[in-house]
User: Which sequence fits this backbone?
């Protein structure tokens, strides 16, 4: 029973982080139809900023996370203004190439500043809770709890606030939203800022149990794309459910099959589900 519980905990931990990353990716795709491969670099930059804010300036875990979220939010908005906005009337392939170029550029900058060494952020809490014969590290419960609070807060923001409603309206019908006076430039900047902040928070939450290095965003962004394709491109519920599905599949696959195949499992799951449901689990109504 304890082993099964540990795999559930591992699956929730991985799934929560993947869902946060995929949420930012699907927000940008849903509104701007940009396959933002640079999102993996934003995730990586968030981890580095948190690591050095905590290590060099002595900030606590939460303050370092806030710094990383603010820094990457600004970086994402700059990427929108300087890279993606000038390409808004270009073929979609140009956005994809620009995003990959930005990913490689940010990795090169980080490697030039901080080197290619591996780092690990100290865990903010090392306590292990025990319930009967079950054990649960507080650090993993922290990741799960913080991720779910953030996902709920994002849903409330999008559904219950005027600003959030403009993002939803733009995602559903960009031209119609512009006709009723919604400023697409402001919505685009806000979306990129939220997307970048989510990536930085996900990276900070995961940093104490994962290594930090310049190319750490490659695999994460590939899995995030798997998740939003699986959940439905542009669908927020799809990103959450897809992230949890991939997290559980990896955790149980790594334990019951082999850790060597845990990264392949996500892609096998994508092929299996899309064979039965090509539009994804929660097809979006974006236009």
Assistant:
């Amino acid at each position: 029973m304890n082993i099964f519980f540990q795999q559930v905990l591992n699956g929730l931990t991985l799934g929560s982080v993947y869902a946060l990353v995929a949420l930012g990716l699907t927000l940008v795709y849903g509104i701007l139809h940009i396959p933002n491969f640079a999102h993996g670099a934003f995730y990586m930059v968030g981890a580095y900023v948190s690591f050095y804010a905590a290590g060099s300036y002595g900030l606590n875990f939460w303050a370092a996370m806030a710094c990383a979220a603010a820094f990457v939010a600004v970086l994402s908005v700059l990427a929108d203004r300087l890279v993606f906005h000038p390409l808004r009337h270009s073929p979609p392939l140009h956005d994809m190439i620009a995003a990959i170029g930005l990913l490689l550029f940010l990795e090169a900058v980080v490697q030039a500043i901080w080197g290619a060494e591996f780092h690990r952020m100290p865990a903010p809490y090392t306590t292990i809770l025990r319930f009967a014969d079950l054990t649960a590290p507080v650090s993993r419960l922290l990741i799960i709890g913080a991720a779910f609070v953030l996902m709920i807060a994002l849903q409330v923001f999008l559904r219950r606030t005027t600003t959030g409603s403009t993002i939803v309206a733009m995602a559903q019908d960009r031209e119609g939203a512009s006709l009723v006076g919604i400023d697409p430039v402001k919505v685009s900047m806000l979306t990129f800022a939220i997307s970048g902040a989510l990536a930085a928070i996900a990276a900070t939450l995961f940093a104490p149990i994962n290594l930090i290095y310049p190319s750490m965003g490659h695999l994460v962004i590939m899995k995030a794309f798997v998740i939003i394709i699986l959940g439905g491109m542009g669908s927020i519920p799809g990103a959450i459910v897809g992230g949890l599905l991939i997290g559980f599949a990896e955790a149980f696959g790594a334990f019951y099959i082999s850790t060597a195949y845990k990264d392949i499992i996500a892609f096998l799951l994508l092929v299996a589900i899309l064979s039965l449901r090509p539009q994804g689990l929660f097809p979006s109504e974006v236009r």
Summary: The mean pLDDT is 87. The longest strand covers residues 128-131.
